[in-house]
């Protein structure tokens, strides 16, 4: 933080020096008298560019790294939704619930398995109380505030609850 403040102050100083020295060079009565001021103004401009080079290079490097190397989320196995979906297609709703529960336990950052379990309880078994229980348990196990908020919104839509203001 301290380094960033010092770097910003240096860039502002170099910019002010560039402007001031350029002004003195342009305001000189004779062109040859203003030449040293103009050369010094460009030296201040180059110094400011050097101060900005490291943070800009860091940002560009981070962007390129994120393009080439995937984030931590993609460094581990992704959830296999094909098993519970195939059980649903076969009419094995209880087996699908078990498979979704296993996925939810294995991948606590995922909200889809919980939503699908709620959907099965609501649409297949027509049991809103069980779906609400799934929602309450999911809110305890889902990792991340953002994921919990997204889940609460989606679960509210599934259960037909009005959003709170």
Order of helices and strands: HHHHHHH
- End-to-end Cα distance: 37 Å
Largest sheet: none
Relative helix content = over 70%
> What is the CATH H-level superfamily of the largest domain?
Tetratricopeptide repeat domain
What is the level 1 CATH name of the largest domain? Answer: Mainly Alpha
Which residues sit in consecutive blocks of at least 5 with pLDDT less than 50?
A: none
Q: What share of the residues does DSSP label as strand, in percent?
A: under 5%
Total strand count, please? 0
Notable traits:
7 helices, 165 residues, mainly alpha, rod-shaped, Serine Threonine Protein Phosphatase 5, Tetratricopeptide repeat
Write up this protein.
By secondary structure, the chain is mainly α. The protein folds into 2 domains: 2-70; 78-159, Tetratricopeptide repeat domain (Serine Threonine Protein Phosphatase 5, Tetratricopeptide repeat), CATH 1.25.40.10. It is 78% helix and 0% strand. The chain has helices spanning 2-27, 31-68, 82-89, 93-106, 112-124, 128-141, 145-159. The radius of gyration is 30 Å and the shape is rod-shaped.
